[in-house]
Write a structure and sequence with these properties.
Elements lengths: L1 H27 L16 H10 L5 E8 L3 H13 L6 E6 L1 H8 L5 E5 L13 H19 L3 E5 L3 E3 L4 H4 L9 E5 L4 E8 L3 H16 L5 H16 L6 E3 L5 E2 L1 H7 L13 E3 L6 H10 L18 E4 L8 H22 L2 E3 L3 E3 L23 E3 L7 H8 L3 E2 L11 H5 L5 E5 L5 H7 L5 E5 L4 H10 L6 E4 L12 H14 L9
Helix pairs in contact: 5-7, 7-8, 12-16
Length: about 500
């Protein structure tokens, strides 16, 4: 009998020891009646623990999924949106361990949630790997909802111009199961506020089921289909999915294109902007930079005191768009050539278009050209060239046109500019160039640009200690390189980099 009693005590003690981690786990967590047992329907015990470490006391957390190819954009989201707005309840969720390793080196919280064979690749919009990565977000959100957390899910290509959290967690949205940024015609899966209700879980479970049945359907299409279904079945039972204020939470089409914003402009009413409706990581980053929405200072991109720059303008408004595009792209090639010869980084000018936001193709140029209209509107480089191709060759050799207006650029750089130079090719017979540009307010340099000795003499004259070497313009100013090898290499680089494109880069 005594042996039996000792055996029973041993069984009880063993059971208690096994249950102790669960007890400790729950003691460490806030009171959460909706939180399931981690060994039940939550498949990621460590993920739930990470969520609660980053969540607020009322169980709210911002989640952003990231892979290694987009860590620079994750850092920018932190710099522009979380840090500047004093937001601390966020967690980056990594696909692939490399993403979290990179973010950890910047002291940013990241949880290695899943692996993907293309985690180190910048996926192209609508590609199979892009859709697969996006659909992983559904699993992430479901795990957080199952853990009883209220989630704001945001894409990385988003900027908070103001802190949206007080409004989202306030009383105005207290009855909403799902509240999302409106993406022109449907709910945007890249900026969604979700409460842990039975209806929101049903929405994301159905979203998951839809994408499992059709691997070609991305999570945004699946999310909208799921919302429509749950509305039809459960709206009478108070299921609520709402669009966030369309004047303050804006997709890329509404903010940039409909808002007529080619460059940085102040928006007194805007809270959140999603930099979508444009294709490629490179184009998104370039547009962020032109709008002063990029604060990632990797490799001292903005703050360097040692780099030297070339800046020039496109002061002529040509009579037709085709002439304008030709002249301004040739001037850009000249600027890049001087940048290479003088070891300086080119600060882009503003270009000219009839319609900066045109997305209509023509057979001749694969972009809109209207030869009968005067291109009087200033437009960014992505209205003319494919940024991904341009960056392949020149990513480290140019800066956006708004560079010198960025708050991180030192005043010592902004102020240290040369008197504008005006290069006049002695061979040129273009009267317009000579009369309209050489107006006596610049330092005139007249030279035969086809002669190597003349170019060498010109480069000596352009040697300057100034941080910014400024040119009045660079029309008809292409220099020749000192030898045929360098000349051919540069021409081949230009050929690969200058691919005509439309504003959205499709």
């Amino acid at each position: 009998m005594k042996r039996l009693i000792r055996f029973r005590k041993l069984v009880v003690l063993s059971a208690m020891s096994l249950m102790m981690p669960i007890f400790v786990y729950y003691v460490r967590q806030p009171d959460c009646p909706n939180q399931p047992l981690w060994f039940g329907n939550s498949r990621h015990r460590d993920f739930v623990q990470a969520l609660y470490r980053r969540a607020s006391s009322d169980r709210f957390v911002i989640l952003a999924m990231v892979d290694a190819a987009f860590t620079d954009m994750a850092i920018n989201l932190y710099e522009t949106s979380f840090r500047l707005n004093g937001i601390e309840n966020f967690l980056f969720v990594g696909t692939g361990s490399r993403a979290c390793e990179i973010l950890a080196s910047h002291s940013l919280p990241c949880f290695h949630y899943a692996d993907d064979k293309d985690a180190d690749v910048s996926s192209v919009y609508k590609s199979p790997d892009f859709i697969r990565k996006m659909n992983t977000r559904t699993e992430m959100i479901l795990d957080a909802l199952d853990a009883g957390l209220t989630v704001l899910h945001t894409d990385l290509d988003v900027v908070f111009l103001r802190n949206p959290v007080p409004e989202l967690t306030g009383t105005n949205l207290s009855t909403a199961d799902v509240a999302a940024l409106w993406d022109s015609s449907d709910f945007n899966a890249g900026f969604v506020f979700i409460r842990p209700t039975k209806f929101s879980k049903m929405v994301y479970e159905r979203t998951k089921a839809i994408t499992l049945l059709n691997e070609k359907k991305d999570d945004q299409k699946a999310l909208n289909a799921a919302i429509r279904h749950i509305r039809q079945v459960h709206e009478k039972h108070e299921f609520t999915a709402v669009a966030l204020d369309k004047s303050r939470y804006l997709c890329g089409f509404d903010y940039y294109e409909k808002g007529n914003r080619s460059f940085a402009s102040f928006c007194s009413n805007c809270t959140v902007v999603h930099n979508n409706w444009i294709v490629s990581r490179e184009a998104k980053i370039y547009r962020f930079k032109e709008h002063l929405m990029w604060h990632n200072n990797e490799d001292d991109y903005y703050t360097s005191q040692t780099r030297r720059y070339i800046a020039y303008d496109n002061p002529v408004v040509w009579d037709d768009e085709e002439k304008s595009v030709t002249e301004e792209l040739e001037a850009l090639k000249a600027a890049l050539a001087y940048g290479r010869l003088l070891d300086r980084i080119v600060i882009l000018p503003r270009f000219h278009c009839v319609d900066a936001f045109s997305n209509k193709k023509t057979k001749k140029h694969n972009a809109t050209i209207n030869s009968s209209q005067r291109p009087s509107r200033e437009c960014p480089l992505n209205s003319l060239l494919k940024i991904a191709a341009f960056d392949t060759a020149f990513a480290k050799r140019y800066r956006e046109s708004s560079f010198l207006s960025h708050p991180k650029v030192p005043e010592s750089v902004k102020r240290d500019q040369s008197v504008p130079y005006f290069i006049l090719d002695e061979r040129s017979d273009d009267a317009m160039i000579k009369t309209r540009l050489g107006d006596g307010r610049q330092h005139l340099l007249s030279v035969s640009l086809d002669l190597a000795v003349s170019v060498e003499r010109l480069l000596r004259k352009l040697t300057s200690s100034k941080k910014v070497l400024r040119f009045q313009s660079l029309y008809h100013a292409m220099p020749s390189f000192p030898n045929a090898t360098d000349q051919n290499e540069f021409e081949n680089t230009i050929k690969a980099a200058f691919k005509r494109a439309m504003y959205r880069q499709f």
